[in-house]
Specification:
The protein is of the alpha/beta class. It has 13 helices and ten strands.
Length: 337
């Protein structure tokens, strides 16, 4: 399938994605508990500024402000009947920013988890999940998104439901899971599991990988896990800007722009082709990441020791696969920031 992302992948060695949505919107005045998606209508200039900040920092791709855009998530804010409106406008604002950039920019329609637990553990059926994701996908498509971007998924059932929905919308897509529980997703999926899931889908993603998680070191270990499976699909690494810490009543991420620059270069060397930031990542981080990616070619894949020496300790003893237990000495090094 020919699409803007696939075209860009053919002409560049590595793609810089965007950073955090929530962190940047909180800095613009969004209050905890508010639905960011409502700002697509209520504060469109701030959403344009969010997108523009990524473009100005050097990003080649940014995600729309639609992470919680399914009816299940919007129902928490009594906005379940506004799925089409909020997602379409979120994508339209992105299209405006991208089209005036003067260089190729991919608008990725962000699709987050429904927040519901799927059968057989929970009550959300496969058909209901597909319907929710399809509704959101069609709205993002109508708004001009180039590609759909499934992110922060934990359950394989939800990943498969979204893939089916995106096929119904006839849209290319990318998919990432969050490996935030000792190297696994909350529902127990490992990096090798996801690599296998992707290859069993009738409608596989253009690229797949990891986002969020517990820090730059951990996500690189996950990327190495993907690469070890030998997949020829582009890999995604979209890690947090360090580790979250509670300071003066607020959550702050301790990753400096310089650290995120190191992370970006190491993510590229680990095998990632699409590299960005997640929670805590701001334009200042993205600029250093852009500099790092532009300053040299891919190098040898980093070792676990090299990762922890540069970016700090892992938060768990292994990546969850059972084969890569990390010696205790690696988990006690001080972060180099």
């Amino acid at each position: 399938m020919t699409n803007a992302l696939s075209t860009l992948l053919e002409i560049v060695d590595v793609i810089l994605a965007d950073g955090a949505t929530g962190t940047n919107l909180f800095n613009m005045g969004l209050q905890s508990g508010d639905a960011p998606e409502l700002w697509n209508v209520d504060a469109p200039d701030k959403i344009r500024a969010l997108y523009q900040g990524s473009v100005d920092a050097g990003s080649d791709l940014f995600l729309t402000n639609t992470f919680g855009g399914t009816s299940a998530r919007l129902k928490l804010h009594d906005a379940q009947n506004r799925v089409t409106e909020l997602n379409r406008i979120g994508a339209e604002l992105g299209r405006e920013v991208a089209d005036k950039a003067g260089r190729p920019i991919v608008v990725a329609g962000s699709v987050g988890p429904t927040g519901e637990i799927m059968e057989p553990v929970g009550s959300l059926s496969h058909a209901e999940a597909v319907e929710m994701f399809h509704e959101q996908a069609e709205a993002l498509k109508a708004g001009g998104a180039d590609v759909l971007w499934l992110e922060t998924i934990s359950a394989p059932e939800e990943f498969r439901a979204a893939a089916e929905a995106f096929a119904l919308a006839d849209m290319p897509w990318c998919g990432t899971m969050s490996f935030d529980t000792a190297g696994r997703t909350m529902m127990g999926v490992t990096s090798s599991d996801l690599a296998m899931i992707v290859e069993t889908l009738p409608n596989p993603p253009v690229a797949f990988g990891a986002n969020c998680g517990t820090g730059a070191s951990d996500i690189l270990r996950t990327v190495l896990g993907f690469a070890a499976q030998g997949s020829e699909r582009p890999l995604i690494s979209k890690g947090n800007a360090g580790i979250p810490k509670y300071v003066d009543g607020h959550i702050h991420y301790d990753g400096t722009p310089e650290l995120m620059g190191q992370y970006a270069a190491m993510a590229r060397d680990a095998g990632a082709t699409i590299i960005g930031g997640c929670c805590g990542t701001m334009p200042a981080h993205l600029r250093k990441m852009r500099e790092a990616l532009d300053s040299g070619q891919r190098g040898d894949r980093p070792t676990l020791d090299q990762i922890t020496s540069a970016l700090g300790p892992f938060t768990s003893a292994s990546d969850g696969t059972g084969d890569e237990a990390v010696p205790e000495r690696r988990t006690r090094r001080r972060r180099r920031a």
